[in-house]
Design brief:
Blueprint (H helix, E strand, L loop, with lengths): L1 H26 L6 H29 L3 H25 L6 H28 L3 E2 L2 H24 L10 H25 L15 H5 L5 H35 L5 H11 L1 H12 L3 H17 L1 H8 L13 H18 L3 E2 L1 H19 L2
Antiparallel strand pairs: 1-2
Helix pairs in contact: 1-2, 1-8, 2-3, 2-8, 2-10, 3-8, 3-11, 3-12, 4-9, 4-10, 4-11, 4-13, 4-14, 5-6, 5-11, 5-13, 6-11, 6-12, 8-9, 10-11, 13-14
Length: 366
């Protein structure tokens, strides 16, 4: 028994993705009773945790800022897979699912993860520092993408309602891809120093400074297991999604809460990784993860949904309501005021977390 426990504790990151795949194969296409759904959710969380572990292993091998980019893209793959599969299976009921999920992702990353990282960093020291140039550029890109894809559809007149016309949707998709592509080029090729931890900031722990990067073989193994874990996350989330939808309906919550639950689920890896980085006093990496995820969520999800809309019947509602636009505008303004000084205290973290709390409260009680 002791040998088995030691084996599992050592190789949990290998076992969890593989078992998640077995659970997915056993439950795919079946309706689940509440007890089985809870068990599937447990393995889903396990797959998420293993995805975080393997993404961090690959990130350690390739270094920053590529590491943050890998995890952001991996999480976006989960998000796109969930949105597309739910839109196909739910039909017109899911017309606003893409909007609700993407907006929730923006609020979770720019307020929830952002604020939690600042809070954790500031609790350890009196203040935390980061690179204002890179973080400011990332925030500006997120604000532009969110406005182009989520705000403008409410005010365009070619189609009735908060809907883009075909040509407008193509423009928004192409503009999103271009902006995201340019940002990735700037982050990884042109100005990578803007996204690295600030010199002269709080010292990193000795473990971080001297930890040897994984070997190429270990990194490749983690990359393969990361893909397996992501498939498990997407598949298991799809399996339990009917239970989530029925549970939300039974609780009397609005349909938009489904998007919030999906976003919270897929961003769990980013949240864990960002908080870990903040605890190790690597605030820039935390902010890279938060804003990079928001950017990827819009810049990659919207083009993918636009392409999928060719085969998906029904309207694609992207425009935000008045309450959501107010929260988005306040998030951008507060985020800019937080980023400009290049340092933050406990106060800034609490402000962002209050904004996140307001978003969650209004999502369940509009």
């Amino acid at each position: 028994m002791g040998i088995m426990v030691r084996f599992c504790s050592r190789y949990w990151s290998v076992i969890l993705p593989l078992v998640a795949g077995v659970v997915l194969a056993a439950t795919w296409g079946r309706s689940l009773n509440p007890f089985v759904a809870v068990l599937v959710a447990v393995w889903l969380i396990g797959a998420v945790l293993s995805a975080v572990h393997h993404a961090e292993t690959v990130a350690h091998r390739v270094g920053e800022p590529f590491g943050s980019l890998i995890l952001a893209v991996a999480v976006t793959i989960i998000e796109v897979g969930l949105i597309v599969t739910l839109m196909i299976s739910s039909g017109e009921k899911a017309a606003s699912l893409a909007r609700d999920t993407v907006f929730a992702a923006v609020m979770i990353t720019c307020n929830g993860i952002f604020g939690l990282s600042l809070l954790v960093g500031a609790l350890k020291r009196r203040f935390t520092v980061f690179n204002a140039e890179g973080t400011g550029g990332a925030l500006a890109t997120v604000a532009t993408l969110a406005t182009l894809t989520l705000v403008l559809p409410t005010f365009t007149t070619s189609e009735p309602g908060p809907i883009f016309s075909g040509s407008q949707l193509i423009f928004a998709a192409v503009a999103s891809l271009v902006l995201y592509g340019v940002f990735v080029m700037v982050q990884t090729v042109r100005h990578p120093d803007d996204f690295l931890p600030v010199e002269g900031g709080p010292a990193q722990s000795e473990d971080d400074e001297h930890a040897e990067p994984p070997t190429k073989k270990q990194a490749l193994l983690s990359l393969g297991l990361l893909l397996v874990a992501l498939i498990g996350v997407v598949g298991l989330a799809k399996v339990v999604s009917p239970n989530i939808e029925s549970g939300i309906a039974a609780a009397g919550l609005p349909q938009s809460a489904v998007g919030v639950v999906i976003a919270l689920l897929v961003l769990l890896p980013e949240t864990i990784a960002a908080v870990r980085a903040a605890r190790r006093e690597r605030m820039q990496i935390s902010l890279n993860l938060a804003l990079g995820s928001a950017m990827a969520s819009i810049g990659l999800t919207i083009p993918a949904i636009a392409l999928a809309s060719i085969w998906i019947e029904g309207p694609l509602m992207l425009g935000l309501g008045a309450t959501q636009m107010v929260l988005l505008a306040l998030t951008v303004v507060v985020g800019a005021l937080t980023v400009v000084p290049g340092r933050a205290t406990l106060l800034q973290g609490c402000v962002h977390l209050v904004l996140f709390s307001a978003f969650v409260f209004l999502a369940v009680s509009p």
